[in-house]
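The protein record quoted for completeness.
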Amino acid sequence: MSDHYDVIVIGAGPAGSMAAWHASLGGAKVLVLEKDRDIGLPVRCAEGVGAAGLQSLIEADPRWIANKIEGINLISPHGKRVHLANEDFGYVLNRKLFDNFLAEKASKAGAEILTKAYAEELLFDEKGDVNGVVFSRFGKRLSLRAKIVMGADGVESRVGRWAGIRTQLKLRDIETCVQFTMANVDVTPSDCDFYFSHERAPGGYIWVFPKGDGIANVGLGISGEYAQYQSPLRYLEDFVQEHFPKASVLTTTVGGVPVAPTNKQIVKNGFMLIGDAAHQANPISGGGIVPAMVAGKLAGQVAAEAVQTGDVSAAFLKKYERQWYKSEGNTHKITYRLKEAVYKLTDDDLNKTADSILSLPEGKRTIVAVFKKALYNKPSLILDALKVFKMSISEVFDPLS
């Protein structure tokens, strides 16, 4: 380990590893600090990812794909199922193996990676600009300097706050989530199920993602506004008791997911925020894997360029911000508006939407049709839905992560 790096990345999730990988490919000297013992563990994710988004970044590898998804079911409060089929919807991943794969890519490109390295504070120069990290590892407290530090430490990033960026979210803009990985779950192996009901998952939804051989991730996210009245765990236990009474819980995961527009500030002099830390998950689905990978790739490339040119100012690093909005951020602004409208729908609204969709011929049951029916009294939002979903039906399947 050196005492000075071009780039130090805090967090080895998909955003952090992609950033380290691409910064290294660009010639930067990179170090990744991961607080947990094992990269990819604990899994705090539903593990679903859209095929198109993933394959725009890397080739799908059977070593870390648990199951291929060819259809989704949108299930109304009164139990009607709207089935949308597409043989290339996406995958349910094995996140431990997937995260390890990305970290290996970064390592092979030249990045150094330290696990059980817990970031404690940032270092600043005489101008007040970030220029290093203090972290602890195996009982030792260490300081390292860097031209650029990246915060990839998840929702409501501590690292971002240390840099002077406000990363806190409003309660309405964070989903509080709980998930069981369960055995003996009787579902269609090729389909993911999404249950919508204000009564059962207020301000969110319930998901069932099959991983094969009767194993499935069964989870629920509710708006932070409602979590103070009843815990998401209680909602999920009620759902499981009703739908999968004979299944067994293998693991339990809890966490928060940002469902907000991109954070207002994501760069400073010598500093960048990426992934959930920058609120770059899809605001309507909560899907964060592909957006995090996109952001990590862009940030890594810009960081390498900044190091090569000797300019790590916020003015230069804003190139990453501009590329992010061009790639994903502007779409997320639209999907945030859609989320605000959809989560206000009552259970009666959702039931009417399902009935209306099921009255259509099967060939016309599309995700765009669902939004048209759900938002029939908000024509401006229907146009937004057309902008977001006209390109690929599989974009709806980039679920909570």
